[in-house]
Amino acid sequence: SGNTLVTSFPNAIEDFPFVVTQEVINRGQERYNIYCIVCHGPVGNGDGMIVRRGYPQPPTYNDDRLRNAPVGHFYDVITNGWGRMN
After folding, report:
1. CA torsion sign, 60 to 83 to 69 to 6?
2. Which end of the chain is more exposed for a tag (fewer CB within 10 A), N or C?
3. Do residues 58 and 40 make contact, with C-beta atoms less than 8 angstroms apart?
């Protein structure tokens, strides 16, 4: 189906390998607005413009499963893609 529900993250790193500063947060927001918002939407609900036009909906970031996921999971997904992510 393209989207696999992951419920555990056994190999994911738990802590950021660098200091998270306001500059890092701003850069992340900039990248999210360029690459992610079209599918994930402005607040991560999975309701971006491409989804509204028929592309399969990604999972919401506002799910406890992802809220509790370690940071390494997100690094891996952003780097390698997941499900239908290019």
Report:
1. positive
2. C
3. yes
Q: Which amino acid is at 57?
A: Q
14: phi then psi, degrees, rounded to nearest 5: -90, -25
Closest to 45 (Cα-Cα) out of 35, 57, 29: 57
Integer CA distances (angstroms), 20 to 16, 30, 61, in order? 8, 15, 20
| Mean pLDDT across the chain | 87
Q: What sign does the dihedral 2-36-45-39 (CA atoms) show?
A: negative
Residue showing tokens 């406890």:
64
Q: Is the pTM of this model over 0.85?
A: no
DSSP state of 7: -
